[in-house]
Design brief:
By secondary structure, the protein is α+β, with helices and mostly antiparallel strands. It folds into two domains: about 1-210, no CATH class; about 215-375, 2-Layer Sandwich (Alpha-Beta Plaits), CATH 3.30.70.270. The protein has helices at about 1-5, 10-35, 45-70, 80-110, 115-140, 145-165, 175-210, 225-245, 255-265, 265-285, 310-325, 355-370; strands at about 215-220, 225, 245-255, 290-295, 300-305, 325-330, 335, 340-345, 375. A seven-stranded mixed β-sheet has the order 1-2-4-5-3-8-9, sandwiched between helices. It has a two-stranded antiparallel sheet with strand order 6-7. Helix 3 (about 45-70) packs across helix 4, helix 4 crosses helix 5 and helix 9 packs across helix 10 (about 265-285).
């Protein structure tokens, strides 16, 4: 049974899963060309990328329900549906994954009717969603490493197949012990491959977004740019992580900058960037070891060696107030500029420099998701 599973269904599942992910990426990259500025970090939990991804996976959930109904077999699609639910929770957040669950449950009722199988399916979906919501919250607070998260997800999949075997769930029964083991092994392989592919695509997307910012100096803002930030940040991370000394980071993004460029032109956008660049350069002088970088089209990062989180948060609020109070004139028309801000401090749980950077960036995108002109500090409670 297991040999037969590996020879045909597992190989098919791998190609189908890769096709699902790559089709989603092709769709998103087409959208990124028009909505994401060069150097901007890709985040699927907010904005148009979130809306499109939620819609895509909701439609996919409905299709899988239809396919199971048409084939009169649910068992071959169970791993797909569990993994879709789990990774939409991780990438799209609670709201996005909840929409996918609702689409899946509604389509189940539409195709199968309100039967015992339907109620059992709903119970399973909601239980897995609640478990993953809890895991995602814990993972965020303790900054769980990707490999550890993959192992936790394997435990969720193993728990399902164990219960499916002992309870003989209607949607997969009759289920032998050997068949349950085969499905679980398949889940582990699919999960590991999916996590690797998604991480690789994320890194590639962010690399493509940042590729136009290779210079080490930006004459427009008088700030050092992405290439120099990358080198300096890696050095600081190693030094302060080893010493367990405070190192804080502030990520700043100009609100509605793309709209400003579209409405007033790129020269006006350059004037805004230059003004804010000079302001940040001036204000960060209060911390002699601080360095400020332009790391994207309208995004700036400030590294604060030796500065604890509470002081970094207060400094970020001061910067936000100073920027809001600065009036920039374009063709004698005053422009009021606001920024969204994310703040985080280096933790021993940050296994790599990317972990700390991405955590700070998540704080920034939470500020943008809350309506912009906000500050989010990573206290471990968001």
């Amino acid at each position: 049974m297991i040999n037969a599973w590996f020879q045909q269904p597992l190989i098919t599942d791998i190609f189908v899963m890769l096709g699902v992910v790559l089709l989603n990426q092709l769709l998103l990259r087409g959208i990124m060309n028009f909505t994401i500025n060069a150097g901007q970090k890709i985040d699927y939990s907010v904005g148009i990328l979130n809306v499109v991804s939620v819609g895509y996976f909701a439609v996919l959930a409905i299709y899988f329900q239809y396919l199971g109904y048409d084939l009169q077999s649910d068992v071959a699609l169970v791993n797909f549906r569990i993994l879709i639910l789990i990774y939409t929770m991780i990438y799209l957040g609670r709201r996005g994954s909840a929409v996918v669950v609702l689409a899946d449950c509604a389509s189940r009722a539409a195709f199968y009717g309100l039967t015992l199988n339907t109620y059992e399916s709903w119970t399973t979906e909601v239980t897995v969603w609640l478990i993953m919501a809890l895991i995602a919250t814990i993972a965020k607070r303790i900054h769980l490493h990707l490999l550890t998260l993959v192992m936790v997800i394997n435990c969720v999949g193993g728990g399902f197949w164990l219960l499916a075997y002992f309870l003989q769930l209607r949607r997969v029964a009759p289920l032998s012990g050997e068949a349950a083991l085969g499905h679980f092994v398949s889940f582990i392989i699919l999960n590991g491959l999916l996590a690797y592919v998604l991480r690789a695509l994320d890194n590639e997307n962010n690399h493509l977004s940042a590729i136009t910012y290779e210079a080490t100096y930006d004459p427009l803002t008088r700030l050092q740019n992405y290439g120099m930030f990358d080198k300096h940040y890696e050095e600081l991370f190693k030094r302060y992580h080893l010493r367990n000394a405070p190192l804080s980071m502030i990520a700043i993004d100009i609100d509605w900058f793309k709209s400003l460029n579209d409405q007033y032109g790129h020269l006006a956008g350059n004037q805004v960037l230059a003004t804010i660049g000079r302001l940040l350069d001036k204000e960060t002088a209060v911390y002699p070891a601080a360095t400020c970088y332009r790391v994207g089209g309208e995004e700036f990062n400030i590294l604060l060696p030796g500065v604890a989180l509470i002081d970094a948060g207060n400094f970020a609020r001061h910067l936000q107030e100073e920027i809001a109070a600065t009036v920039i004139r374009v063709d004698d028309q005053p422009l009021a500029i606001t920024v969204s801000v994310g703040v985080a401090q280096l933790s021993l749980a940050d296994a790599t420099a990317s972990d700390f950077y991405e955590r700070t960036d998540r704080m920034l995108y939470q500020s943008k998701g809350k309506g912009r002109n906000q500050i989010t500090v990573d206290t471990g409670e968001q």
